[in-house]
Amino acid sequence: LSSAKSIDLYSPDKKIHVKIDLSKTISYSVFYQRQEILSPSAISLTINKGIKLGLNPKLKNQNKRSVNEKIYSVVPEKRKIIPDIFNEIDLQFNKNYGLIFRVYDDGVAYQFYTKLKGEITIVNEEVVFNFPFDRSSYFPFEDSFLTHSERQYPYVKISEITSEKMGCTPVLIYDENRPILAIA
Prior knowledge:
The strands form three sheets. Strands 1, 2, 3, 4, 5 and 10 form a six-stranded antiparallel β-sheet that branches. The chain is built from no helices and 14 strands. Helices cover about 0% and strands about 50% of the residues. The chain has strands at about 5-10, 15-20, 25-30, 35-45, 50-55, 60-70, 80-95, 95-105, 105-115, 120-125, 135-140, 155, 170-175, 180-184.
């Protein structure tokens, strides 16, 4: 299995396609109705003692599953029954860690996990969002890590958000005639 370099996962309605690349690092791309909406974007997790999960990944095993269940809300706000429908792949790597991707009909999520013994400290998380073109966004600029999360959301091009800028989530990526993305 360690020779697998690319893995595909689709939403239940087949409109969203996630392509996971396992070469020198882990990256993923997202397509909506065959249109690329997220270009290859690296993800990794650095934990205690500088161990970087996602660097030179060696795939040991993978398990796919499809889920079609209902979540019953204890305190319903918008609805009492929430459909929980997705396709999932659990990628298990050498060095006792894994990565789960879920693809819903309206979104994509991922989660790192470990089977390491003892206490784990997350030192750094790499999350990159590469877009195939300069999209527009509603981006909540912040001045510090201490925030009340009540910022204005100015409409700005992604190219205007430099590495010196800071913001909180959610961020809404919006252009007319293209899929709307929310990053949270």
